[in-house]
Each structure stands twice: as structure tokens, then as C-alpha cells.
Amino acid sequence: MTTATALTTQVYQVFIKATPEQIWDAITKPEWTARYFYGARISVVPDAYRSLGPADEVWGESDVAEFDPPRRLVHGWRSMYDPDMAAEEESRVTWEIEPQDGGYSLLTVTHDQLEGAPKTAASVAGVGWMMVLSGLKTVLETGESLAG
Amino acid sequence: MVTYHRRMHDDDRVFKALADPTRRHLLDRLFERDGRTLTELESDLEMTRFGVMKHLRVLEDAGLVVTRRAGREKHHFLNPVPIRLIHDRWIDKYTERHVSALSELKTQLEERR
């Protein structure tokens, strides 16, 4: 039980000087995600999560399990930008946004149910989510976009 | 007046948390395998359970460790984002030119010996 949880769940957190509404827009609207999410144009609506690459290639397509703006979003994850990872089972991503003092919000990203997706787990750990979340903070706090 | 927000990921807390060999060791253990319990983390440390808990608390306050409960067990997850933000703030600031000039100097000096 312990081992299963350990190897199949990843948790990331960042404080961002932005309102929950601003963060919600930044994670659900393609014009925002293109600026920090490896160039992916991600749109999330109540019944579908869709991620497109620069040439409109499909990088991700999943169901949305929970859509509760601006506090909680749960959707499936399949890394369709890579053939090996695309063949793996779907995992799950949960975004939680909690308002804090001083105009800050705490964003927590939990990527779990990675039992059937070891390549995806290795890929998103380490720099994967770390770069996305530090990039999101930069974009929201400074207005600067990141290269790539 | 300066107000410190609870559990804010400010640089001071991250530097303080990293300035201790036991805490760096705990982060390395979580890097090897994420989501460990306190019992797993204390197994190779010559320290009381309470001592390890105190170190984990400092790491948690700095945002470097995030905990999640699963039933009766508490799992510890490495959160590398604050370290990345320090990298962005402190490493990128000193341009690559300076860094490469210094590493070239080091190489030259060491070759001469």
C-alpha cells in the first residue's frame, strides 16, 4: 500500500501572487497555457480537456471529472506527444487553488493514478511539472512569457 | 511592518531549510523515491523520531515537502518548485557569461598544476 502510493503519486505546490480566478483562467485557456506549458494550447471546459501542439497536433485529450471554478479541477492525463507514453494507461491530474493572505493563492497539483503509466510518471516528475509551475508563476506575476 | 504569511515560500525559509545536512539528506531520500512515510525516512538516520519530525516540519514550512494522508499513514512528497524559483532568481541573474568565465578560469588554473 505504502509503496503503491509512493510510486504512483506526485504532489507539487507553489504560491502565486494572483487571485484564484486569474489562476483558473491561466490553467484552462489556451492563450495562457501556450505561454508556459511547453507551448501547449490547453482548453478545459466542463466535459473535456484538450491539449494541442503548435501545429494543432493532439498532445492530450481526456475527460474532466470535476470542474469547479475557481477552486478545483480534475482531469485525465495521457501524454499523447510521445508514442511510448501515449500507449500507457490514463493517469489523473488534480488542481486545487486556495486563496491566501496578501493577494496570494496556493496552487497544488497532484498527479496520481500513475500505476499503469511508469514512463509518464518518470517524464512529468523532476523537471516536468516543476517547469510548468515555476513558468505559470512567472507569467502571472511578471506578465513575461517563457521561451518554448 | 513586515508581515510574514503562514507557509509562504519565501527564499529565507528555503535557504535555511537547505542549510542543514540532515534536511538535504531527507530531500535526497525523497528524490530517490517520493511519498515516503516518517518510519521509512527515519530508518537510516541516527536520530530520534522527534528529531526527524522537526526537520521534516522545517522542510514543510519552506514548501520543499508536501504531506498527504492516506488512511492512517502520512506520506511526504518532494516539491522541487521553490528550488527552481531560487534558481531562476539567483542563477539566471548572474549571466552565463560570468559563470562560464569562472569555470574556464578554474579549468585553466587546475590544468597548470
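qc> Chain B is about 60% helix and 10% strand.
qc> done
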